[in-house]
Design a protein that fits this description.
Radius of gyration: 35 Å
Number of helices: 8
Strand order of the largest sheet: 5-7-8-10-9
Low-confidence stretches: none
Shape: elongated
Amino acid sequence: LPENYDHLHWTKLVHAEDLQRVEESQAEVLNNPLEFYWEQEYRFRKLNGNYAIVYDRGYIIRDKAGNAVRMIGATQDITKMKENEIHLGKLNKNLQLQSEKLAESNSQLEQFAYVASHDLQEPLRMVTSFLKLLEKKYGETLDASGKKYIHFAVDGANRMRQIILDLLNYSRVGRTNGEKQMLNLNKLVNEINILFRKEIEEKKANILIEELPLIYGYETPMRQVFQNLISNGLKYSRKNIPTRIEIKAVDLNEHWQFSVADNGIGISKEYFDKVFILFQRLHSKEEFSGTGIGLAVTKKIIENMGGKIWITSEEEKGTTFHFSIQKQ
């Protein structure tokens, strides 16, 4: 190294906790004739007395005998970068802790929903059973009002039971059973249409299915998505007009974009987002059946698959549900 190289002065500026490590790494490289590059990170005292974290590297020039005679390099202040790394590390750690707490909270919520639904269903079944027995045993002595009250009570218990079942279904979204597999969506949708055969005949519905892709995923969630959207198209049809539902798919490189379009009653633009919220019904139960949970379940499933769902609609002309699913 150059005769004017003040090694002693340099060592006084290196932080005491880093000095031994830096000198040992430097000596190891300098004394090895096959090494020509040295680098190290350490704390170095500045003129103001504060320490900067520096990245020091150098190219070693050797004589014919392999002895190190000179080092050419540069020292870079990386204090800000290191501070950002430390800050980012803390943020990631906090995020991980929050994620773990959220996972624990979700698990507890799922357990609560299961227990609550199971415990609530039994008394509802009991209420329904005893009301029916009451009607059967004392039906002849009851007047029209009494029979009507029993009917209202039984109907209310049945609807409450359906709400509990739907809530349980909503809480289970994201908990996949079985393994991923290659799904033939054409076959899956045709099976759903068989399930809705009675409604399709009553509505004189025509369900048009363009060629749908094969996708790799879980069968049950995908079945729920198409079943909910087809059911929605059949339910909210216009009177005296044959129902028409069109199902399409478009390949958009990284994801598939699907659409389920109907010619039903349509939705006002102000309700486009509200229909995906739990229990948000736009019509009374007398007009259209249901609990207002189906679309919320659909949205949750699609978002769990890395996709999104949105609506285009015009009142008295029909509604189209668009949703995307990532290919990977």
